[in-house]
Structure formats: C-alpha cells, structure tokens
Design brief:
- It is a single chain.
- This protein is α+β, with helices and mostly antiparallel strands.
- The protein has a domain of 81 residues: AP2/ERF domain (GCC-box Binding Domain, 2-Layer Sandwich).
- It is built from two helices and three strands.
- It has a three-stranded antiparallel β-sheet.
- Strand 1 and strand 2 form a beta hairpin.
- One of its GO terms (molecular function) is DNA binding.
- Probably acts as a transcriptional activator. Binds to the GCC-box pathogenesis-related promoter element. May be involved in the regulation of gene expression by stress factors and by components of stress signal transduction pathways.
- It is found in: Nucleus.
C-alpha cells in the first residue's frame, strides 16, 4: 500500500540502533541496559566504544534473565555455561550486571584493538611505500599478477 513505511531492518541505514537493547550517546559511546522482568527497574549494563560490545553485554544479560529462549543479537555466541541461571534459581541484578559488563569489556577491548591495529597497519604500509597504485582502467597482464 502507498504511504505506509516498511519496518526498519537491521543493517539498513539504521545507525542509531543497529542492535536490540543498546543506544548511542550524543558523544559517540554505546550504552546497554535491560529491564528486569515484572519490574519497572532497569539493569545498567555499561558504556562501550563499539555497538558490538554493547550488544554482547545485552545478550549476556538477557540470556541470564530469560534463558535459552531469549532473543539474542548474536545467537551463535551464547554465553559459556549454556543454561541461563546458575543452577540455584534466579540471579540477582548485580550478578547479571557483573557478568554482562565483563563480556562487554572483553569484546570492547578486542574490537578497539582490531580497529586500532588495522589503522596502524594501514599507516605503516602507506609510510613504507608498500601500497602500490593500480590503474583501474588498464587490463592487468598475466605476468604482472603473481
């Protein structure tokens, strides 16, 4: 029908909220929080440099709150332990926050190092002159490709 907008899909010009449970602050940090079931309160999950880290922190928290049936941003990266709660029933908000922030901090460190490492490697290649300019209008000779 005309005049109706399609719902936004992940990855399609959706820079403000690429994953569930996170948002971006005005100054560029990504934050994650989750509402406790059957309560009005929220569990603060931290502030991160990358949206992936914030989303992984959210996934950890929602997994521990709702178990294996939780809808995750990264279902292929389930938290270690496999079964939501720690065997003795419900986990406290503080323990969920702790587990989620640990995961988010590790992912943030890896993501930031990867971004920084790639940037540094690109700078080093450019400075050393090992980046060759390629003429995209020319068909390459088979002898040059090796």
């Amino acid at each position: 029908m005309e005049g109706q907008e399609e719902p936004r899909k992940r990855g399609e010009n959706n820079n403000d909220k690429p994953y569930k449970g996170i948002r971006m602050r005005k100054w560029g940090k990504w934050v994650a929080e989750i509402r406790e079931p059957n309560k009005r309160s929220r569990i603060w999950l931290g502030s991160y440099s990358t949206p992936v880290a914030a989303a992984r922190a959210y996934d950890t928290a929602v997994f521990y709150l709702r178990g294996p049936s939780a809808r995750l941003n990264f279902p292929e990266a389930l938290p270690v332990g496999g079964g939501g709660c720690d065997g003795d029933g419900d986990m406290s908000a503080a323990s969920i926050r702790k587990k989620a922030t640990e995961v988010g901090a590790r992912v943030d460190a890896v993501e930031t190092a990867m971004r920084g490492g790639q940037h540094k490697a690109a700078k080093e290649m450019k400075a050393s002159g090992s980046v060759d300019r390629v003429d995209l209008n020319k068909i390459p000779d088979p002898e040059e490709i090796s």
